[in-house]
Queue: 2 jobs
Job 1
Amino acid sequence: MRNTAVQLTDLTLGYERVPAIKNINGELLTGSLTALIGPNGSGKSTLLKGIAGILPPLCGSCCVNSAQRVAYLPQSSALDCTFPANVLDLVSLGLWPQRGLRLRHRAEDRQRVANALQAVGLDGFGNRSLSALSGGQLQRALFARVILQDAGIILLDEPFNAIDGSTRLDLLRLIKQWHAQQRTILVVIHDIALVSDHFPQTIFVNGELMAWGETQTVLQGDLPLPSAALANAGRFTLQRVAEQ
Ligand SMILES: Nc1ncnc2c1ncn2[C@@H]1O[C@H](COP(=O)(O)OP(=O)(O)OP(=O)(O)O)[C@@H](O)[C@H]1O
């Protein structure tokens, strides 16, 4: 697994022994930037949870390069923002893989948290309660936590949902910085134009693996996605894995 960050072998994942996504084979190369696309309910979040180690395989295996830490950012709608915590609490959690849960912040840690908040444009938001953040501000805070996790493998579930254009650009810039640092990045996205413009690799799932490869090859046909997702993205021919 020298150049392999994640290896999936006949991987089937699901809930209460009912498969949600079946027989996935493939590998994420170290330093790759990959979009994960597919219709609602096609198993994208399930696959991310499997790679993050949150969901054990029903069959097959998911091997993650043990030399690399994994950062997983769930859909922000899955987070309970009524929890009595502020932005500093949330972002500082990114330090626990390195410092442990009972961390006492050193001056160096406080500086790293401040730097991460600055990098996502949330300077001065540290004491703001999570419940008082807008959707875009919450997404920025979650990205600050990912910065602190300093992981080699970064899994992001729909980070561009319900955010405005400038937040989207800022977050995209961060993803590109991580890519330039040779981190391995997998991002669930519904916006096919964004995938086409910014992601070199694409995985397309629909309960099983439909295609995995260069984005322009994968997006060469009619994808069974809502027409809104295809707006401005042209027509694509789907190259099925089975036909390769
Ligand atoms: N906790 C759960 N318990 C039981 N079934 C689940 C659970 N989470 C997801 N599922 C089911 O697994 C299948 C895949 O769901 P998943 O959330 O992975 O899809 P998705 O592609 O991420 O969808 P979306 O684009 O809507 O976020 C769906 O049929 C869903 O109903």
Note: The chain has a mean pLDDT of 86.
Job 2
Amino acid sequence: MAAATPHSPPPPQLSSPFLEYIRAPGGLDKVVLRGRRSCSVEIRLFGGQVTSWKNDHGEELLFVSSKAIKPPKPFRGGIPICFPQGNLEQHGFARNRLWAIDDNPPPLPVNPAIKAFVDLILKPSEDDLKMWPHSFEFRLRIALGAGGDLSLTSRIRNTNTDGRPFSYTFAFHTYFSVSDISEVRVEGLETMDYLDNMKGKERFTEQGDAIVFESEVDKVYLAAPSKVAIIDHDMRRTFVVTKEGLPDAVVWNPWDKKAKAMQDFGDSEYKHMLCVEPAAVEKPISLKPGEEWKGRLGLSAVPSSYCSGQLDPLKVLHG
Ligand SMILES: O=P(O)(O)OC[C@H]1O[C@@H](O)[C@H](O)[C@@H](O)[C@@H]1O
């Protein structure tokens, strides 16, 4: 496994006032993207994981557990990358490897207004290849937009030289910070079909209006729309989640019993988080050698002054 080494190489020279490289022991080096006012994003090289996203008032928008543990364990919170999944460790190994800064990524069309972004890369180690015998290049661009929105673009290329295709499932396991889960509703997934992970992945159709939370939820919504809204009444804030190349959306909250059973999660923390995870779960993605797949996650937080209690979710979703 490509674990963090105690003697890391010198920090890369990031030639932008919008980026900072912060050295930390134990594989905890991070890159910080800075936007207008107090907007920022922190990315840990271990896991290629976003661990913080703050709005222009400096308020944290992502949930990170106070019990999150350090590498080589996966980090509970932020945006873990789940890849490649299958008969491997839960959620794949990408969230549990040391990524590198990609100094020379292949071109990716970028909005010229976006100044703060970083490109990371993960390639399998010898040990990874023993576990999952496929060669790949996984490029991840993390960008902080002018308005404080965050986007993650994944590009995965099959670099097998033996002509073999490979397939995988994928998720951006996004942990949102919410004021009180009982006051949150999710718009955009009503009437969708889902697989219920709590009922042996049986298929159901969502009934009723928006999704609200009263107990443990672990569902994979199939062919979910490209925009989903998480409406937090108490915070008067709506997260708008957009996705491309990722047909499904996992919705997860462990609730009290499971929370207590999780070593890296506080007993009551389930009240203040919700995972909505753009994903490709039902139908694995297949890549032939030389082929590349692209998936994108976009996040924005609509502030209360905009909502002022009058939020029309249809406008957020379709307007
Ligand atoms: O503990 P992990 O591996 O980070 O997974 C947390 C949860 O992640 C969700 O995506 C899964 O649907 C749940 O089944 C799982 O419990």
Note: The first strand starts at residue 19 and ends at 22.
